[in-house]
Design goal:
- It comes from Brevibacterium yomogidense.
- GO terms for molecular function: 2 iron, 2 sulfur cluster binding; metal ion binding; monooxygenase activity; oxidoreductase activity, acting on paired donors, with incorporation or reduction of molecular oxygen.
- The chain crosses the membrane at residues 47-68, 80-103, 148-168.
- Belongs to the Rieske iron-sulfur protein family.
- The protein is an alpha+beta fold.
- The chain folds into 2 domains: 3-171, no CATH class; 178-349, Rieske Iron-sulfur Protein, CATH 2.102.10.
- 37% of the residues lie in helices and 14% in strands.
- A 6-stranded antiparallel sheet has the order 4-3-5-6-7-12. A 4-stranded antiparallel sheet has the order 8-9-10-11, with no helix packed on it.
- Residues 1-11 have low confidence and may be disordered.
- The structure holds FE2/S2 (inorganic) cluster.
């Protein structure tokens, strides 16, 4: 048996209908919009205005996406991100604020008590009451009679998912051969990363002697600045360099020469869906990806020990040049980044 009690309004009438006493809820205090048609109309227009803000945000997202393409410079990436971010914020906040305002000003705010249902299916009487409650909610929200709010809300919600089409479009096309090669190659020096796209004069090669046990660096290739697409190339070539006590490394025999006295280098691009692996726990020698918590063991060639990643981080073979700087022996020997459908195509096509 279901019953409803309330201190006022339709809930109260329903409670009286079912013969229940008021359990002591405070008296309902009417809001200005309950008594003033002018305030009610104003609130209605304010709510509709927020839904219109949402629509403008959605349209701005789509326009900004094409107006400010990503480009190859850090400044263009920032402008693109800010412009579409502004649109997304307005689109979602407009709907959210409008609904909150609607609930606060126009939806009936009388407090209602509903008894817990008995176990098992409801009786016909319960079902009739449930139907009555639904109709009551429809009346209280005013969705049927407030056409301005209803229509702007429907329009805002209908176009809000459109930016997702553009965002999903950016996931494609498949990378093909692009992840098979990076800027690393024989003799390319490992340099500290000190900016979005460092100037040539800012690129600082790393001496093996300066890498202490327990330290970790984010590293880029020295030839990054010469690349025609520095941002893309930087993203693919990003490397984490760490120095571990050589006695703690379980090195495969065929990779004995890939490190330098405990200094090892691994791709920073997570093999799950490509986030930057950014956290190094130097006591456990674990690398953590912040996106979905994949964890890689540096002492075991960055094998996956936890999380959704399916393969180890690719290792960059390194050595020391005549001047004591760390250099790559070659490019990565396998594709960097997420496992993808075409990952074996190079072998197949070769
Ligand atoms: S991208 Fe690294 S765990 Fe998902």
């Amino acid at each position: 048996m279901t019953s409803i009690e309330s201190s006022g309004g339709q809930g109260g009438q329903l409670a009286e209908m079912n013969g229940f006493a008021n359990p002591g809820l405070p008296e309902h205090k009417p809001r200005i919009t309950d008594s003033s048609p002018t305030a009610e109309r104003l609130a209605e227009r304010q709510i509709a205005a927020w839904f219109i803000v949402s629509m403008i945000g959605t349209i701005w997202f789509i326009v900004a996406y094409f107006l400010f393409p990503v480009g190859d410079s850090g400044a263009l990436v920032r402008i693109h991100t800010m412009a579409i971010g502004l649109g997304a914020t307005a689109a979602l906040a407009g709907i959210g604020i409008g609904i909150i305002l609607w609930a606060k000003t126009l939806v009936t705010d009388a407090e209602i008590v509903e008894d817990r249902h008995d176990k098992g299916g409801g009786t016909e009487e319960d079902q009739a009451i449930a139907l009555e409650i639904l109709n009551q909610a429809k009346d209280e929200s005013g969705i049927a009679r407030r056409s301005l709010i209803r229509n702007t809300l429907i329009a805002a919600v209908a176009i809000a998912p459109l930016p997702a089409i553009l965002v999903f479009r950016d996931l494609g096309p498949l990378p093909g051969d692009k992840l098979f090669t990076t800027l690393w190659g024989p003799g390319v020096r490992l340099c500290k990363d000190i900016g979005m796209i460092p100037e040539q004069s800012d690129i600082m090669p790393i001496r093996a002697a300066d890498v202490t046990i327990g330290s970790a660096f984010h590293v880029i290739p020295e030839n990054l600045r010469d690349s025609g697409h520095p941002l893309d190339e930087k993203a693919k070539a990003a490397v984490l360099l760490m120095r571990v006590d050589p006695n703690e490394l379980n090195t495969d025999p065929d990779r004995e020469s890939w490190g330098v006295d405990g200094i090892v280098a691994y791709s920073k691009v997570c093999t799950h869906v490509g986030c930057p692996v950014a956290l190094y726990e130097h006591q456990t020698h674990h690398l953590l990806c912040p996106c979905h918590q994949s964890t890689f063991d540096v002492t075991n060639h960055c094998k996956v020990i936890f999380g959704p990643a399916k393969r180890p981080l690719p290792q960059l073979p390194i050595a020391v040049d005549d001047e004591g700087y760390l250099v790559a022996q070659s490019d990565f020997t396998e594709p960097v980044g997420p496992t993808f459908w075409e990952i074996n195509t190079r072998e197949t096509n070769a």
